[in-house]
Amino acid sequence: xxxxxxxLGQSNMAGRGFIHEVTPIYNERIQxxxxxxxxxxxxxxxxxRPVSGISLAASFADTWCRQNQEDTIxxxxxxxxxxxLDEWAVDQTLFKHAITEAKFAMxxxxxxxxxxxxxxxxxxxxxxxxxxxxxxxxxxxxxxELNAPDIPxxxxxxxxxxxxxxxxxxxxxxxxxxxxxxxxxxEQDNCYFVTAVGLTSNPDGIHIDAISQxxxxxxxxxxxxxRQHVLKPLINEDELLNLNHARPHTKGEKIYIKSMxxxxxxxxxxxxxxxxxxxxxx
Length: 282
What we know:
Elements: E1 2-9, H1 11-14, E2 30-34, E3 37-40, H2 57-67, E4 72-77, H3 93-105, E5 110-117, H4 131-145, E6 153-156, H5 174-187, E7 191-194, H6 210-226, H7 237-246, H8 251-263, H9 269-281
Helix pairs in contact: 2-6, 4-5, 6-7, 8-9
């Protein structure tokens, strides 16, 4: 059975971590919804922009697989870079698209959780003052539309690198947004807050870098798995990431990787055939 998770928010949920900076995650039990089909996950998962990259979802899903050996996890990417909370309002396109994608996925999966990360676009001009009320309307409507009143919602905080440099310089009120996000998670049922403390950014000063996205995914899973807030970094984040990397690939995963190498022109057809034959012999 596929257990699916809806990915909502802006660019740090979509993922902008540089792909070459971390070890790839290939896991045939992690699927992503693309073009109306479940496909084996390849990053970037949430391809909202040509610059999409590493998000928190892959390490979240890989850790989920380690604790759920019998099931498959499905990721439903619906995040949109640069989107404000107003653009997620119930009468707007992003909300409607997320509902459509989730309902489509629910035809052959069990919707199991919602992963939310948004706020950078609202971290200025006093927008935090109405953030809670707007978010409540969105989440209540999501749960009602999806007939999932008790579905867990995991809410990530904004990075403390914001407000300093690059594109993140204008996000001067991120601390106030974090307070609203945390208050929301503390007060609403089945909502759990995940801190971004200690995470680092790309040189642009606004997007969480690849290794920090991997760590963020671990924290999201900790909150989901234990149904509790994660208010400080996990003490064993590096160890957990090493566990993810240490898992030997299955035959199907090895062939998938070689197929990717061939499709990208990194090996010849003859090399591809020879390597797949060797995989099948092993």
